[in-house]
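Propose amino acids for all 114 sites.
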């Protein structure tokens, strides 16, 4: 009995990978073995960085809140401790946005927790 190979699935798989490699430089975009490795590595990076993005944004928010709080003579940790103690239910994302884009509202929060 002759050997059966599924060329249709093989071609579809290659087309899918080469489509994902669209826009890459040089042989990474059109040579199967190089494109396959490049796409695999890109997927690893994207998986990792979807998690890292959350850390980076939290660090950015903390930096912005710290800068805003220090204008009124408080450190970040003092400010956040007093925010929690006073039962203010604003998260870091909102506080950072207020500190940057709405300083009057942030000052009102600082005055309330002092």
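Proposal:
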């Amino acid at each position: 009995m002759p050997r059966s190979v599924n060329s249709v699935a093989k071609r579809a798989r290659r087309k899918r990978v080469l489509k994902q490699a669209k826009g890459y430089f040089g042989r990474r975009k059109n040579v199967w073995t190089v494109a396959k490795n490049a796409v695999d590595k890109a997927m690893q990076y994207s998986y990792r960085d979807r998690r890292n993005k959350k850390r980076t944004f939290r660090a950015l928010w903390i930096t912005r809140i710290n800068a805003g709080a220090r204008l009124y003579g408080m450190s970040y940790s003092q400010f956040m401790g007093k925010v929690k103690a006073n039962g203010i239910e604003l998260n870091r994302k909102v506080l950072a946005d207020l500190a940057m884009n709405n300083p009057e509202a942030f000052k009102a929060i600082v005055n309330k927790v002092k």
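The chain has one domain: 11-113. The helical segments are 7-20, 32-70, 76-85, 92-101, 103-113.
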